[in-house]
Amino acid sequence: MDDFYDINGEKELPDELKNILSTVFPLVRNEVKIGWIGIGKIGNILASTVLSDGYESMYIYNRDVKKTEYLQEWGANLAENIKMVAEKVHIIFVSVGTSSDVNDVFYGKNGLIENLRVGTVIVDMTTGSPTLAKKIYNDCLQKKCFFLDAPIIGNEETVKMKKASIVVGGNREVFKGMLPIFYILSNSVNYCGPSGFGQNTKLSNQIIVSLNMIGIVESLLYAYKSGLDINITIHALTTGTGSSWCFSNYTNKIADRDFKGGLYVKYFVNDLETVLNESFKLGISLPGLSLANQLYLALKAQGNECKGIQSLILALESLNNTKIEKKVIKKTDIATSLM
């Protein structure tokens, strides 16, 4: 199939695919059958949100069947395999761990590509490779289907509150057709451009997070070693010019030695390595990102791959042979110390 582009560099669909797309949208809630592949922490929240909004015909698949029990109680149908999802539904969401997992979903045994029905729309919400997203997009077009890369920027709390940001790459008309479901999932939905641009946007966010985390843990380590009280320091800096979403959400967890929850180190390392691979293809040098990647690789090697990314402090403590100890201090003492 030939490639067609408009003046903005976005692929224009040939007439045959435009005609197929016109039969898919607009979505009719009680007629749409939705598939969901990948029921992890975020996938579970997103899928249950769609179910509770009235899209009641849903087929779900997860390698660990136990994780699907909650959604089955809500009325979702359990699919035996990915092939069954492809055969049963019109719209498929994918929310798995890594690009390797996405590749398996599409190209593995009984994968999506070989089993898609004409006119199926697939939305991949995994953080992954823009290069892989472009390949899947083109392979889906060959099957007369449509693909959007739509990773989500946020954590469990923001996803539950519908405040996470969905960043989407792919055909603009397919994006517009999916807006009713996207807005069920979040109040912030962004069309970023052609295929792969959703992933590029999410990876840009991960660069910011990685360097932000280095600044946070180095700041806290410096404050502690210089004799400052960590509680007071965090309180004072939260409204300062160096504060950020990461600072507000992770510093108290670091001070409390709470390294559970949030984005796992093993997944973040995968994100950072994906950015480095893509930056190599673009011919650009990202030295700060390279440093962050090395620190998180060290953290992973120390056995912390299933801890949250705030556990980066452990790598810095190891380098400096120290450990931040939090003093027991009352909030009234913090207020007094700042007067």
CATH architecture of the largest domain: 3-Layer(aba) Sandwich
Provide the helix percentage. Answer: 40-55%
Instruction: Calculate the mean pLDDT score and round it.
Output: 91
Rg computed from alpha carbons, rounded to a whole number of angstroms: 22 Å
The low-confidence runs, each spanning 5 or more residues with pLDDT under 50, are 1-8
The CATH topology of the largest domain is Rossmann fold
Total beta strand runs: 9
Note the total helix count: 15
Mind telling me the CATH class of the largest domain?
Answer: Alpha Beta
In words, what does this structure look like?
The chain has two domains: 15-194, NAD(P)-binding Rossmann-like Domain (Rossmann fold); 201-337, Orthogonal Bundle (N-(1-d-carboxylethyl)-l-norvaline Dehydrogenase, domain 2). It is elongated. Helix 9 (197-225) packs across helix 13 and helix 9 (197-225) crosses helix 14. Strand 5, helix 6 (130-142) and strand 6 form a beta-alpha-beta unit. It is an alpha/beta fold and 339 residues long. It has helices at residues 15-24, 41-52, 69-73, 82-88, 99-107, 130-142, 156-160, 172-185, 197-225, 230-237, 245-255, 265-282, 287-304, 312-320, 331-337; strands at 34-37, 58-61, 77-78, 91-94, 121-124, 146-149, 152-153, 165-169, 188-193. The protein contains 15 helices and nine strands. The strands form two sheets. A six-stranded parallel sheet has the order 3-2-1-4-5-6, with helices on both faces. It has a three-stranded mixed sheet with strand order 7-8-9.
